[in-house]
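Format notes (please read before filing issues)

Several people have asked whether sequences and structure tokens are stored in separate files. They are not. Every record keeps both together, in the order shown below: the sequence lines, then the token lines. Line labels are part of the format and must not be stripped during preprocessing.
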Amino acid sequence: MVRQFGHPRGVVGRAVGWFMAHRSSNRQRSIWAVSLLDVRPTDRVLEVGFGPGIGIAAFAARAVQGRVHGVDHSQAMVRQAARRNAAAVRAGRVRLTHASVDRLPSFGEPLDAVLAVNSVGFWTDPAERLRELRLLLRPGGRIALVSQPRCPGATRDTTTRAGQELQDLLAQAGFVQIRVETLDLEPPVACVLAHNPPTTPPTP
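Then the structure lines:
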């Protein structure tokens, strides 16, 4: 079952996706995280590991003139998220791709924001993956990494440690202006936000 939450597949995977989409805390944390990224109407955004598509829908409601990209390595989640966001997919505002974070597709122009909710722990070499994501962001672009520990007995201290690990990974990957926001659920949710460094203006 734990593996199914990391990579939903088959009949059980579809049930896991339904559970993730309807669990109140999951919906709250995704919508909250999107709000912290301060998405503008013309932004180009990406969610890595979008699951049943709650965050994708929240992005689409904000980036109404931009483009919302999503990648997930579960075909079952791609199908569920596509159904949940069918109108935006048909309109060409949302593009969902079956892909893993270590083999990302091309997104064309630079991205303005990237989100990953409870997925970094499943990545191989997360610092390297974050460096690759930073290269896809425009100068000054934003990223949000979210962790709500789901291990048995998780507490506020568990969330604090998870948040610190994400801060360290972002710093290793070259992100700046790193800060942590906390959502008071059970257990609490840590959202670590950071920026791609702005380009240095040429010397006159």
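For reference, the curators noted about this record: The CA atoms of residues 122 and 142 lie 21 Å apart. Strands lie at 44-48, 67-72, 94-98, 111-117, 137-147, 176-183, 189-195.
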